[in-house]
Amino acid sequence: MNGSFRQSMAWLHTWSGLLVGWVLLAMFLTGTATYFRPEITRWMEPETGMPADYRTAAAGAAAYLSRVAPDAKSWSITLPDERQATARVFWQPQPQPGEEDRPRRRGRNRDTQATLDAASGEVVKPRDTRGGEFFYRFHFQMHYMPVLFGRWVAGFCAMFMLVAIVSGVITHKRIFKDFFTFRPTKAAQRSWLDAHNLTAVLALPFHAMITYTGLVTLMAMYMPWGVLANYKTEDAYFKALFPRAEEVERSGVPTPLAPLPKVLDEASRVWGGGRPWIVSVRNPGDSTATIEVTRHSGDKLSYRGGSLTFDALGKLLSASPQPGPANVANGAMYGLHMGRFSEPVLRWIYFLCSLAGCAMVATGLVLWTVKRRQQLPDPGRPHFGFRLVERLNIGTIAGVPAGMAAMLWANRLLPVGMAERSAWEVHSMFILWGGMILYACLRPAKKAWVETLGAAAVLVAALPVVSAITTPSRNLAANALHGDWAMVAFDLTLVALGGVLAFCGWKAARYKPAVKPKRKAAPALAKEAA
């Protein structure tokens, strides 16, 4: 970092972006998909139906639980919203004698949960899949590694991203002029620099917001000293952050539970039109029963909407305490990052800005090789480090979207009853991504760019066709006929993204590297030669 301050920032910008650029691109792409996580899950569960009103889903869920677990210790119902077609129900059986003192196992038993159709309340058994949840989890905790370690890796890369954003703003003197500058017909380095600047400046506030809020959401893990200084244990901290009412033993007096739709309507009225999301019932069917209704995390900017508690007859007992300023700020940061509060138009803006972030990272990686190729003693025979970066660029820029598409292909092609089916869907993504990197190492750079981008384009754009062949009930025409416009938009978006990848492959095929002009001999040397 020699020279002026701006030159030092340029050096920092270059290397902070390159060293973790491949992981950042994977995080950005999977994070971009997360804005349509419910739609991806619906597409990957074609056995499910259409979204339905939460009142209908609540009534169906209560009827089901009353049949299968009338004397359970507790019920939990996750209601659908306008983007989901199923309700998830869980119940905790009454402990058997001697089980009260045993430590409770984490997780839920498959025998005490079910997925219900939101409209009919009937049990549906969708194929075993991680759905959009995998992309969400991967983008901040990686895969094939311990969860906490993966979150540290994601935080490390996000910090590098934040450094790259700040140093990039300092480096570019004409940052606002670059917003209106794109010269695709100029020399390769100039064109790639313009593309990098344009995608960076176009959504600069979004890039800064999404990176900073991503770090803040996990700040208790990255910077735990404030918690440790004020609480003896982490459990004490989380109990203070999310207080829970004490458990009450059953009285043994049978009492019918108030109709859940009526309770939910009352909760919505108290919240001024807010939507209920999670319903937790303790001691169902008993006079001591309580119904806790948690507000939908997408109702407000802050994802912590609070909860209301009702008795067995539907009378409001209490509301969760108002969060403090720090809690509100943290909830708002999380809400900004996740974008759950956004309506369709704003959600698409989130999606497009995040795609611009993907393009920013990808063009930055390519710019590194384009700029340095002309500085090599022999551009036709670059050194190992240059070849490594170039091949990782090809294998990741084309390989990650191809791998994500491969996961969707596997969802349609793997046998529905296959053991560990969801795991192999995920494996397919990394197998193809790794295969793309290996293929790029075995082919000349230009051919590798064209072939990998072409393969990625076909894999993405052909998904609606594969879906129509393998699941006739979930194709473009059927979705349009049933008014399922979310799935129509999903298929059309896949075709559009495939077209973008095809365009990139076409541009790579037409690319001709600039040739250094031969330097003219100096006049004195020319006379001597004569």
Biggest sheet strand line-up: 3-2-1-4-5-6-7
Average pLDDT for all residues: 88
- Which strand-content bin applies to the residues? 5-15%
Number of continuous helical runs: 22
Largest sheet: 7 strands, antiparallel
Bulk shape? globular
Helix/strand order: HHHHEEEHHHHHHHHEEEEHHHHHHHHHH
SS elements, strand count:
7
Which regions have little confidence, pLDDT < 50, spanning 5+ residues?
none
Helix content, binned percent: 55-70%
Termini Cα gap: 46 Å
Category by helix and strand content: alpha+beta
* Assembly state (oligomeric): single chain
Radius of gyration: 27 Å
Describe how the helices and strands are arranged.
Layout (H helix, E strand, L loop, with lengths): L4 H15 L1 H14 L2 H8 L9 H15 L5 E5 L7 E7 L20 E5 L14 H10 L5 H25 L16 H15 L1 H13 L2 H4 L2 H6 L3 H8 L18 H11 L5 E7 L7 E6 L11 E5 L4 E4 L5 H14 L5 H30 L10 H14 L1 H15 L7 H22 L2 H17 L1 H8 L5 H6 L3 H26 L12 H7 L1
Antiparallel strand pairs: 1-2, 1-4, 2-3, 4-5, 5-6, 6-7
What is the compact description of this entry?
By secondary structure, the protein is α+β, with helices and mostly antiparallel strands.
Question: Any key phrases for this structure?
Answer:
single chain; 530 residues; alpha+beta; 22 helices; 7% strand
What does this protein structure show overall?
By secondary structure, this protein is of the alpha+beta class. 57% of the residues lie in helices and 7% in strands. Strands 3-2-1-4-5-6-7 form a 7-stranded antiparallel β-sheet. The longest helix is centred in the last third of the chain and has 30 residues, at 344-373. The mean pLDDT is 88.
